[in-house]
């Protein structure tokens, strides 16, 4: 008898509790997306069928995490759950000090204010929206030092998240090391398509930074997913555990900002982790102003417990294999159908190449925004624009940034959707791909000042 190929990425869990989904008609969706100004962020969740807007805070918690919620110690000061979280962060990430925050951007706010002096530069391996904004609000200027390959959706490269060391060195030469506040290093670089950074590159960046007395701040938001790619793709790591790889990754940095809402399988939470006692002192003092006392940082005790338990679960190889395997499954099916997506498939999402969908649309007709609206119209699936709207305005010139990548992100929450949901998603994307020729684009009719993609409104052309 022929042996059947093992579906090695099948989910290492079964479903104990379910939440019903609502299907809508095309007429209903035409009305709801118009009311939402053709911005998927402004849709009501009740009008969405499969929600692939983000993997942030949308994860399903385990029975172990829910049990931990009942052990929430809701003391204002010195909650037991804070100490549990601190111990897990030290054990898994390896930093000495912990400051909890309500989510990732709370940590970004603290570190940007502490380390950036107005007029300084902050290089990074591509920007993330909230990270760059906090740097700018603190008086810094972001400089992109990611490798060129990251800006090309079609080039295959195992570590498209890598820093171009020549670009980093060139910045130091141009402005002087004392004008570089620190370098931010993102894991599985979100805006590049969820592309990992290699251990070798992390090590080299840290060496170059340390030589110039520049601190490295690691955005560890999806670092465990990055560790999985290192295990799969980088020589010498195939037999190491995810935990060992994660520890080594973090060892090449001085501090980490963290959105627990991704890797760590919770609905809310984040932290700043540090090795430098003086910076910790300042962060611990400042967190009281913006988030809450340093032993809760804007979180309930139960949220800290769920995150502490999430660290243990998220670092399991079987979990990561199923999580990344699901994304890869959707990506491979779309590639087979000839739909243009960012290659190789990233860790948390599929990124549709909107420029290839709609070559008839110039960038100011918002191809990616249009594509996200078309997908919702077709099936009620909600995705997110990651193109010119997300890139925002250049604070110096007042003009738009014109990113090379004009993408729509189909982001997969962890442990939430089944393979059948994945198939429906593939079918709907394919339908939208086949109807691409008649699409005319959008015009922006309302533009908010900060992070405009969240609340901007559009009309059909
Ligand atoms: N860094 C990265 C790489 C992120 O992807 C996010 C959030 C943050 C920082 C900020 O964390 O939301 O907890 O304040 N990304 C979400 C997303 C919003 O949909 O990609 P936060």
Topology, please?
Layout lengths: L25 H10 L27 H7 L10 H13 L4 E5 L2 H12 L5 E4 L4 H9 L3 E4 L20 H11 L6 E5 L12 H13 L3 E5 L3 H11 L8 H10 L3 E5 L10 E5 L2 H14 L10 H14 L2 H20 L12 E5 H4 L9 H13 L4 E3 L1 H4 L15 E5 L7 H16 L7 E5 L10 E4 L1
Parallel strand pairs: 2-3, 4-5, 5-6
Antiparallel strand pairs: 1-7, 6-7, 8-10, 9-10, 11-12
The chain binds ligand F0G.
Task: Outline the structure in words.
- 39% of the residues lie in helices and 12% in strands.
- It has helices spanning 26-35, 63-69, 80-92, 104-115, 129-137, 165-175, 199-211, 223-233, 242-251, 277-290, 301-314, 317-336, 354-357, 367-379, 388-391, 419-434; strands at residues 97-101, 121-124, 141-144, 182-186, 215-219, 255-259, 270-274, 349-353, 384-386, 407-411, 442-446, 457-460.
- Helix 4 crosses helix 10 (277-290).
- The longest helix has 20 residues, at 317-336.
- A 5-stranded mixed β-sheet has the order 1-7-6-5-4, sandwiched between helices. It has a 3-stranded antiparallel β-sheet with strand order 8-10-9.
- The protein has 2 domains: 26-55 and 317-460, Aspartate Aminotransferase, domain 1, CATH 3.90.1150.10; 63-314, Type I PLP-dependent aspartate aminotransferase-like (Major domain) (Aspartate Aminotransferase, domain 2), CATH 3.40.640.10.
- The mean pLDDT is 96.
- The protein is of the alpha/beta class.
């Amino acid at each position: 008898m022929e042996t059947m190929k093992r579906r090695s990425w099948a989910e290492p869990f079964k479903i104990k509790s379910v939440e019903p989904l609502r299907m809508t008609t095309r007429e209903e969706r035409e009305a709801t997306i118009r009311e939402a100004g053709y911005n998927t962020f402004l849709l009501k969740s009740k009008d969405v069928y499969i929600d692939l807007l983000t993997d942030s805070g949308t994860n399903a918690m385990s029975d172990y995490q829910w049990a931990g919620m009942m052990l929430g110690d809701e003391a204002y000061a010195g909650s037991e759950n804070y100490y549990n979280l601190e111990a897990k962060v030290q054990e898994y990430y390896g930093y000495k000090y912990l400051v909890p925050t309500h989510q990732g951007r709370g940590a970004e706010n603290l570190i940007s204010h502490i380390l950036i002096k107005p007029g300084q530069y902050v290089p990074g391996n591509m920007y993330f929206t909230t990270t760059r904004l906090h740097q700018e609000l603190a008086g810094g200027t972001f400089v992109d030092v990611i490798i060129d390959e990251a800006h090309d959706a079609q080039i295959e490269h195992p570590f498209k998240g890598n820093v171009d060391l020549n670009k980093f060195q060139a910045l130091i030469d141009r402005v002087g090391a004392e004008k570089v506040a620190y370098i931010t290093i993102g894991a599985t670089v979100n805006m590049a398509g969820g592309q990992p950074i290699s251990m070798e590159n992390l090590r080299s960046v840290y060496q170059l930074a340390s030589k110039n007395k520049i601190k490295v701040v690691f955005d560890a938001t999806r670092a465990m997913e990055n560790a999985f790619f290192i295990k799969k793709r980088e020589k010498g790591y195939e037999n190491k555990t995810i935990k060992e790889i994660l520890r080594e990754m973090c060892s090449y940095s001085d501090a980490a900002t963290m959105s627990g809402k991704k890797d760590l399988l919770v609905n809310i939470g984040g932290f700043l982790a540090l090795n430098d006692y003086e910076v910790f002192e300042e962060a611990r003092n400042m967190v009281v102003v913006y988030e809450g006392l340093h032993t809760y940082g804007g979180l309930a005790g139960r949220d800290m417990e769920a995150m502490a338990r999430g660290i243990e679960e998220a670092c399991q190889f079987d979990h990561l294999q199923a999580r990344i395997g699901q994304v890869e499954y959707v990506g491979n099916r779309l590639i087979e159908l000839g739909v243009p997506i960012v290659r190789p498939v990233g860790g948390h999402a599929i990124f549709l190449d909107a420029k290839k969908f709609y070559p008839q649309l110039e960038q100011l007709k918002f191809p990616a925004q249009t594509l996200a609206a078309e997908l919702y119209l077709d099936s009620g699936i909600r995705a997110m624009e990651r193109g010119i709207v997300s890139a925002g305005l250049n604070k110096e010139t007042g003009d738009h940034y014109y990113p090379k990548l004009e993408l729509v992100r189909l982001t997969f929450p962890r442990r939430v959707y089944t393979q059948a949901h994945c198939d429906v998603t593939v079918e709907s994307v394919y339908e939208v791909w086949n109807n691409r020729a008649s699409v005319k684009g959008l015009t922006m009719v309302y533009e908010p000042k900060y992070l405009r993609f969240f609340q901007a409104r559009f009309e059909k052309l």
